[in-house]
Specification:
Elements lengths: L1 E10 L2 E7 L2 E7 L2 E6 L3 E14 L1 H6 L5 H31 L7 H10 L16 E13 L9 E6 L2 E7 L2 E8 L2 E12 L4
Antiparallel strand pairs: 1-10, 2-9, 3-8, 4-7, 5-6
Length: 195
């Protein structure tokens, strides 16, 4: 058998595919509203409540007085007793001077002055209620905030913004390897004797 030196080499064609996917980018900014307002203000001046109780008149009606009032009361009583005594002396002098009425005025004056008349009565102390005064106040002073047409309100509006970028997908087909057939001939004759 004769073996010929013919070699056939075949290379297959190869197809390459490049694919880039589609891309969608969305950028969004929300709308915003900024409002500035001058708020109304109320100024309050508060004096806390205070209860003042004056018991001096109550104690004074029971006889507990300060030195000044005791001196004034003593002076008034002294004037009153002096006026009463002067009145008694005038009355006694008039009785002694009226001899035309007859009688014994000296004996009557002596008898009258020898007997003291006492009056008894029931009384309660204190006669005057304590003086109670409540002090303290609350003052309001509202400040107006009306300024112009907007009444002190200032606003800034920023609209929404939407930005869309789209890149479509791409498919690229190319031949990465060509098909080929290669023939090699070897001219050395080989005889195969083994059959």
């Amino acid at each position: 058998m004769i073996n010929m030196g013919l070699n056939i080499t075949q290379t297959y064609a190869k197809i390459g595919v490049d694919r880039s996917p589609s891309r969608l980018q969305i950028q969004a900014r929300n709308a915003s509203l900024e409002i500035r307002q001058k708020h109304a203000k109320v100024n309050m001046d508060i004096e806390l409540p205070r209860v003042e109780i004056d018991q001096y008149e109550s104690f004074a009606s029971a006889g507990l007085k300060n030195n000044g009032d005791m001196i004034k009361e003593g002076a008034q009583k002294g004037y009153q007793k002096a006026y009463e005594y002067i009145g008694k002396l005038v009355q006694d002098g008039n009785a002694l001077a009226a001899i035309e009425n007859g009688g014994n005025p000296i004996a009557e004056i002596a008898r009258r002055d020898s007997l003291k008349m006492h009056e008894f009565n029931i009384d309660f102390i204190p006669k005057v209620a304590p003086k109670i005064t409540v002090k303290g106040e609350l003052n309001f002073d509202p400040e107006k905030n009306s300024e112009g047409v907007n009444n002190g309100v200032d606003g800034k509006y920023t609209p929404a913004d939407l930005n869309i970028n789209y890149s479509p997908s791409q498919v690229k087909v190319f031949l990465s390897q060509y098909a080929s057939i290669k023939f090699d001939y070897n001219n050395e004759n080989k005889i195969n004797t083994y059959v």
